[in-house]
Write the C-alpha cells for this entry.
Amino acid sequence: MKDYMAPMEGVTNFVYRRAYHRFYHPMDKYFTPFISAKPKKNLSFQEICEVSPERNEGMYVVPQILTCNAEDFIRTAQLLKEDYGHQEVNLNLGCPSGTVTAKGKGAGFLAEPQKLDAFLDEIFSKLDMKISIKTRIGTHYEEDWDYLLAIYEKYPIHELIIHPRIQTDMYRGVPRLGAYEKAVSRLKMPLCYNGNLFSTADYKRITQRFPDTDCFMYGRGLITNPGLVSEIRDGVQPGKAVLCQFHDCLLEEYKELLSGERNVLFRMKELWSYMAVSFTNYEKYAKKIKKSQHLSDYQAAVSSLFAEQELAD
Ligand SMILES: Cc1cc2nc3c(=O)[nH]c(=O)nc-3n(C[C@H](O)[C@H](O)[C@H](O)COP(=O)(O)O)c2cc1C
C-alpha cells in the first residue's frame, strides 16, 4: 500500500511536509503545490524551496507543474531534473479554480481533448522522465470521462492520480465512484485514488469497493487530522501531545521563515480552518484563533484549546 500527501496550495508546502514527516506516519510521496510553467520563467525563491533537496531531506517529493503549453512543461521538467535531481514530475489536470480553467489549464485543459492529446504526445516523446498525472474526470459532464480515458490509455503515464469529480463540482458533494470504477476496469497503468478520505472508515469503504487499488492520496482529511494515515496504517492515533509538538514545530518554522506576525498568523489560521474540528467543543476556540491579531493572542487561544479540550473520536 502506498500513501501520498496531496498538493495543496498554501497548505502542504515544504514547511508542512517536513514537520509532518517528522511527527507522523511517513508518506511514500509528497506532491508540491503546483508550479506554474511560464515561457522563459525561472523558479521563484518560494518554488526553489519547494523542490530543492536541501529543504526536503529524506522525502520523495514530486514537483507538480501547471500549464497547457508542452514546451513550457518540458523546459520546467528539464530544469527540475538537471538543477534539482527530480526524476518524476506531475501534471496538474485537476485545478478547478476559475482563474486557472479560464486559461485552459488545470481541469480546464480537460475540455480540449485534441489539444490535450497533442500536448501529451509531445511531452511523452520528448522527456526522459517519469510523468504522472493528477486529473479530475471532466469539466461539466461525467460523460467527458470516456474520451479522457481513451486519451490516457495511449501514453506511458507513470501513475494516474484520479480525483473523481468534475470541474464544476469544485470540492462539493461526494466523489463519483462510478467514474473511478471505469478507470479501474479499463486502464492498465498504476492508479491512485484521491477524494474525501477523512477517516479510517472512508478508507475502508474505498478499499472494499476497489480491492485492487493500492495507492491513496490524502488532502483535506489529513490536514484536519494529521494522524489519519498513522491510524490507517499503524492502528494508532498519535494523540494530542504529538499534535501539539507538530503545531509548535510548524509555528517555529514559520516564525523563522516569514517576516512579520501577519504572515505567520495567516499560515497558521489556514491550518486551523481544517484542524479545529478535530477537537471536542472547538467552536469558541476556533473563533478566538481566527480573530487573533498578534502571535500572543494566537498562542493563548491555541494553548487553551490544547489544555481544555480533547481530540474528538
Ligand atoms: C486549499 C487547496 C489547495 C489545493 N491545491 C492543489 C494544487 O496545488 N494542486 C493540485 O493538484 N490539487 C490541489 N488541491 C486539490 C487536492 O490536492 C485534492 O485533490 C482535493 O483536496 C481532494 O482530495 P481530498 O478530498 O483528500 O481533500 C487543492 C485543494 C485545496 C482544498
